[in-house]
User: What shape does this take?
Amino acid sequence: MFRVIECIMLQHDLRLVLLAALVWILGSAALFLLLQRSVDCVEERRRQWLAVAALAAGIGVWATHFIAMLAYQGTMPMSFDPGLTAVSAVFAILCFWLAFLAAGREFGIRQSLSAGAIAAIGVGAMHFTGMAAIRAPAVIRYDWGTIAYAYAIVAVCFTLAFTLFGRLTGALRIVLPAAFAVVGVVTLHFTAMSATVLAPDPTHMSPAATQGH
Assistant: This one.
């Protein structure tokens, strides 16, 4: 926990960290508002609303990740590969769509468990594809044990979010699931970042660094 707090406080621009969190707060609220709209529709319309919800969720979590990455204040120049950056967004959107299909209309415990696992896979695939998009004079290394712990947290948070969405009514049906989604994504991102090491390696030059020489 202290390692994660140190990572946030000492290695990030806190203004951009807050902006990243705000983006996902709005994105997760939009996600559950759209899901609520979907369950009130006939099947054909429901699937259309699920696609819109997946787009909102995927783009929201993707934007949150890259704003948080821009907040990172490292000691070496970094840029991002445009192709992999775009692919990371596709992974997030696709997995959220599959998660919503798995949840069905009722969002029962088993369905929510499956949906939570798929959503967590999507967020993880987006995160690590985004990390693979980094171009810097360094080799990226991970503490996989810490990252596995973070994945368990985000999967539980999404499972609880979908389960609560299926059981609650009124404003709480949006607010509580969105809160769990926010906690899960923020925990995953910054725990994974605290478990990431950029080991300097001049053979891995970023485009910006290459142009500078």
Q: What stands out?
A: Confidence is low (pLDDT under 50) at residues 1-6, 206-213. The helical segments are 2-11, 14-39, 43-71, 82-103, 109-132, 144-167, 172-194, 207-212.
